[in-house]
Amino acid sequence: MSSRPPEVGAGAGAWPTPRPDLGLQEGYHSAQVPVAVRLNTNESPYPPPREWLEALMAEASDMSFNRYPDRSARALRLALGELHGVPMESVFAANGSNEVLQCLCLGYGGPGRRALMFEPTYALHAHIAHLTGTEVVRVRRDEGFRLGPREAAEAVRRESPSIVFLCSPNNPTGLSESRATVQAVLDAAEGALVVVDEAYGQFAPWSALEVLSDALPLVVVRTYSKTWAMAGLRLGYMVGPPAVVQVMERVALPYHLDSLKQAAGRLALRFSSQMEEHVAAIVAERERLVEALRGMPVEVWPSDANFVLWRPLAKPGAQVWQELVERSVLVRDMSTLPGMEGYLRTTVGAPGENGTFLAALAQVLA
Ligand code: PMP
What is the pLDDT of residues 229-253, one digit of tens each? Predict the structure, then answer.
C-alpha cells in the first residue's frame, strides 16, 4: 500500500478510488481572497442584531448540550410556519438551503431519475443533483437569460423530469421568474416536484409562496444566509406540502439540526423589522449601483436580488476581475458557468463598499 494518499481523484495502488462518476466538479467555489471589500458571495453587509446574539447567548446558557437536540425542530418550524401562515407540518429546515436542496434530490431524484434546470442558474442545483446520482438535464434560457412560460412548459413535457428547479430571483442573473412561468411549469409537471429556490426571495416583487397549496407538487426554498444576515449559521428551510416534508424527514440524518442553530433561527424571527429595513437599504443601494454601472462601458442586467450581473464591454471580464482584486475589491467571476464568459457579478454591499467598488471600477475601465 502506498505510504501517502495520492492527489484527490487520482487513485493509485491499493488506495481507495472515489466513485468513478463523481468527477471533479470544483467550478462553483468562489475565490477566498483577502481583500478589503468582499462583494462576491451575496452575503448581507450588515451583521445580525446585537439583541439577537444576547437572546441566543441567554438561551444557550440553559441548554443541555449533553442531550441530542429536538429531532423534529418543533419550535423553529412552528415559528417559521407562523411567519409564512402555514402549520409546522409544511416546514422542513436543514443546514443551509443547500442541504434542503440535497434532501430534495435524495428524496425525489436518484439513479434513473432526472432533474431539469434552466441555465445559467445556481450551479449547485446541477452539482447536488449529480452527487445524488440524479441525471442532470440542462435547458438554456433565451439570449436575455429569460424563461418564458411556453418554453419552460415544453422543456418539462419533453424531458419528463422527477424534479424541476427554478431559481427566483435567479442566481447569477438577478431576474425573477414570472408567475406565469411558475404556473406553466406546474401545469406541465406531471409527476415532477417543482422546486423554486428563493434564496433571494425577500428582495423580489413576488414570491412563489403565494402559489403554494397542499394539492400542488410545489416547494419554496429559503435561507437565513442572505436577508437574515446569518450565512455563518448555516440554516435554510423549505415550505411545501406536508407529504413532501415527511419525505424530507426520512432522508435527513437524525438530529441534523443542532440545538443552538434551532434556537438561533427561531430567535432571529423576532427581529424581522430590522431585517426588512436592511432589505430596503440594500434594494436602494442596488438601484444606485445599477444606475452607476449604466453610465460605464459595461452591459448591466436589472436585478430583483442583492447582486448585479454585468459584463465589461471594452476589456475581458477576467482582466477586470484581476484589476479589481489589485484594488482590494473582490467580485464574482461567472466565467466558469457555461455561456457566462466575461460576466461578473457584484454583491450589493454597504454604501461605502459599493462606493469603493464603483471608484475602483471607474479606474479599471478608464
Ligand atoms: N440557492 C441559491 C440560489 C444561492 O445563491 C445560494 C447561496 N449562494 C444557496 C441556495 C445556498 O444558500 P445556503 O446554503 O447558504 O442557505
Answer: 999 999 999 999 999 999 999 999 9
| 234 and 103 inside one domain | yes
Give the residue from 241, 269, 297 where a domain finishes.
Answer: 269
Using 50, 70 and 90 to split pLDDT, how confident is the model at 18?
Answer: confident
What number of other Cβ atoms are within 10 A of residue 340's Cβ? 20
Question: How many C-beta atoms surround the C-beta of residue 95 within 10 A?
Answer: 18
Number of domains in the chain: 2
Q: Which pLDDT belongs to residue 22?
A: 80
CB 171 near ligand 1, within 6 Å:
yes
110 assigned to some structural domain: yes
- Quick check: is 61 in a domain? no
Residue type, 259: S
**346 and 359 within one domain:** yes
Q: Which of 29, 100, 223 to probe ligand 1 with, by most ligand atoms within 8 A of CB?
A: 223
Strand partners, 295: none
Residue whose CA lies nearest to ligand 1 atom number 5: 171
Phi, psi of 172 (to 5 degrees): -105, 10
Which of 100, 124, 203 has the most ligand 1 atoms within 8 A of CB, as the residue to mutate? 124
Task: Tell me how far the alpha carbon of residue 6 lies from the centroid of ligand 1, in angstroms.
Answer: 32
171 domain-assigned: yes
Q: How far is the CA of 199 from the centre of ligand 1 (A)?
A: 6
φ, ψ for residue 338, nearest 5 deg: -60, 135
- For residue 8, what pLDDT band results from cuts at 50, 70 and 90? low
